[in-house]
Amino acid sequence: MTSAVAPLLEVRNLCKHFPVFSQGFVKRQIGMVRAADEISFDLYPGETLGLVGESGSGKTTTGRAILRAIKPTSGCARFRFADGMDVDAAALSESELKPLRTRMQMIFQDPFSSLNPRMTVKDIVAEPLVIHRQARGSELDDMVDDMLRKVGLKPEHRNRYPHAFSGGQRQRIGIARALIMRPSFVVADEAVSALDVSVQAQVINLLHDLQQELGLTYLFIAHDLSVVRHICDRVAVMYAGRIVELAPCDELFADPRHPYTRALLAAVPNPDPDVRMSFDLSGEVADPGRLPTGCAFHPRCSACFDRCSVDRPELKDDGHGRWMACHLQDRDN
Ligand code: SF4
Question: What's this model's pTM, rounded to 2 decimal places?
């Protein structure tokens, strides 16, 4: 997590735990779901960091805790913007968060349910400007038209309703709404997962072009590793609420080090019939409410050894920008 440039976002030991209560009249806490646990990473201006893992690994919870869509249980999510604004989003009250809301936005997975079917495209895209009293009248119309053009739609589309558009076009409307306030930081949560493969490529290219044009920094949440490979500069792999490996994208795909990352990559279908796929990801995903002792991945790990079921590995830096939480790095050194 080192660079000559200061990070836009510093996440340190961010946790989101959900208490589990018993049924019946007298409710008492009987457990804790560690949906996101001690998450730490830096995100640099203009960078795209991928957050990948199986369902239930804590990717979305992490993104939502950073954006303060949910309040973190503990930890820090410090933003340093180019204009000097320096705040820990995790520590702010709801009223203190308001100035920050315009600078960070979310693009949602499902373009069918994330848009209000009773609102026109213009009203959907303009709503954040109206709520934050940033523009009105002809200035607001011009800003909406300009943003529609940027996302590849036409200003003539502004009076139509979402049902009149294809899935890809609806996602473009969602992107226009997220970017109309000119945020610096965007969480794209499975932003292309619900789209056809051909449309996915178009939307990924659009996100990339908009990043260059508007100077955006992305946290790109996805379960599809082939998508992540096309858009991300670095990738963080999550398992059972924790980051287990973080590396530059090319290095992670060329030389995955954590056994879970290796298993995930081995499970990606290869179109070459001569390439034998090796799946060594057997067993169930760890339940974040009842995590195994030691390394949460140890019941599924083919490289597991004695220490793994006792000690929980910490996320450690190799000194060259690669991070891993696995006892193998101590054994190999
Ligand atoms: Fe496997 Fe042990 Fe590494 Fe966990 S710490 S991933 S069980 S080798």
Answer: 0.91
Residue 111 in contact with residue 194, Cβ under 8 Å? yes
Q: Which atom of ligand 1 is nearest to the CA of 295?
A: 4
Checking DSSP bridges between strand 9-21 and strand 74-80, what pairing results, if any?
antiparallel
Ligand 1 site, CB within 6 A: 259, 295, 297-298, 301, 303-304, 308, 313, 326-328
Best of 237, 239, 291, 297 for a ligand 1 pocket test (most atoms within 8 Å of beta carbon): 297
Q: What is the pLDDT of residues 290-325, one digit of tens each?
A: 899 999 999 999 899 999 999 999 999 999 989 999
Token pair recorded at residue 303:
């490289």
Q: Which of 237, 261, 295 to mutate to test the pocket of ligand 1 (most atoms within 8 A of CB)?
A: 295
Instruction: State residue 71's pLDDT score.
Output: 96
Positions of the chain with pLDDT lower than 70, given as ranges: 1-4, 111, 269-280, 332-333
Distance CA 299, CA 49 (A): 28
Whole-angstrom CA distances from 214 to 5, 77, 187 are 18, 23, 15
Question: Which of helix, strand or coil describes residue 80?
Answer: strand
The strand pairing partners of 49, in sequence order, are 219, 234
